[in-house]
Amino acid sequence: MNSPYSNLPKHAFWSSGVAERAPLDPGTLYSPDIMIDRKARVVTAGSCFAQHVGRSLREAGMNVLDAEPIDSAVSDTTANQYGYRLYSARYGNIYTVRQMLQLLREAFGSWQPENIVWEKDDRFFDALRPSVEPLGLPTREDVLDHRAEHLKAVREVFSNFDVFIFTLGLTEAWVSKGNGTTYPTCPGTIAGTFDSSIFQFHNFKYLEIKNDFLKVRRLIKTRVPHAKFVLTVSPVPLTATASRRHVEVATIYSKSVLRAVAGELSDRLKDVEYFPSFEIITSQNARGSYFEANLRNVSRLGVETAMSQFMTAHNISYSPRRNRALQAKKEFNRNLKSGAQDLNEICEDLLLKAFIK
């Protein structure tokens, strides 16, 4: 009997596409329509998982732009602590599409945020990127001056590039009740003071996220008409939720909404591609080995597996440093015993653990 399923490839069926794969065999989940080569000028941004994406692309020799570099003599550890070498500008983690939209609008002069200077122990922080100066700055004026220089870098990098790789991280955020300024972390976590008359919790919905990205795309395309976009969804679960749901339920809700948005955009728009890092990392076939012992942070094995698929699909040479089969066994056993975090991540939401009672 003939049916629409008769001549489909093996990857279209769960048994042959997933169940029959060997453990830790990631299969081939990524077949891009938009090809990227080494010469393409790449901009990266997004949630903390995007740090791994950018690092892997640089290690593969791709042309990842950096509008706010630091001297090469500074170690990666120190540089990362101050927001350098993480993304294409020193904007820190951008967890929501609304954050990305407001950053571009601010950089290009069409919008102004509010309540952007937070204080802690007589030091001052940029509320929109509080982790880039972990010790704060001496005065409010210093924060504003530093931000002005940062916005110049954002204008520069988003006016002269080819491909924007954006990792969608969260739907949950804290916003100002005034003009809706969206922050990367809750006031009072890193700095500042939480005041319910000024700030409120917001869980962005599907249409809000989709429309925000369309506005991001439109704003960018007016300056870079040939720009292409690669969307991916961070596989990193929430550290905590303010939604009143169980954190596991809240995580699946958040990731499902983001994945649905990314899927529609990539299906609908020829200049938008979806890279399935979320599916690769969370696959049942991985047996959990792509996560650290805390079941939250992505292991080096997971990062290298996902990025190997990306590089292979784009015909870019990429040679992770360690043998994966041996690495999987050693890392997973070590992390089960120690709970160690294999890769450094700069994530504001990790600080929420300090409020666990």
Any idea what the radius of gyration is?
Answer: 20 Å
Q: Strand-residue fraction?
A: 5-15%
- Please work out how many helical segments DSSP would assign: 10
**Distance linking N and C termini:** 62 Å
Structural class: alpha/beta
Give the overall form: globular
Task: Report the order of strands and helices.
Answer: HEHHHEEHEEEEHEHEHHH
Averaged pLDDT: 91
Q: How many domains, in number, for the residues?
A: 1
Give the helix proportion (percent range): 25-40%
- Provide the low-confidence segments as ranges: 322-326, 338-342
Spatial strand order of the main sheet: 1-4-8-9
How many strands, what sense, and barrel or not for the largest sheet? 4 strands, parallel
Q: How many DSSP-defined strands?
A: 9
How would you describe what is shown here?
The chain has one domain (34-355). The protein is of the alpha/beta class. It has ten helices and nine strands. The strands form three sheets. Strands 1-4-8-9 form a four-stranded parallel sheet, with helices on both faces. Strands 6-5-7 form a three-stranded antiparallel sheet. The protein has helices at residues 14-19, 49-59, 76-81, 97-107, 140-157, 206-221, 247-268, 277-282, 300-313, 324-338, and strands at 42-46, 117-120, 123-126, 163-168, 172-176, 182-183, 199-203, 228-233, 272-274. Helix 2 (49-59) crosses helix 9 (300-313), helix 4 (97-107) crosses helix 5 (140-157) and helix 4 packs parallel to helix 6 (206-221). Residues 322-326 and 338-342 have low confidence and may be disordered. The termini are far apart. Helix content is 35%, strand content 11%.
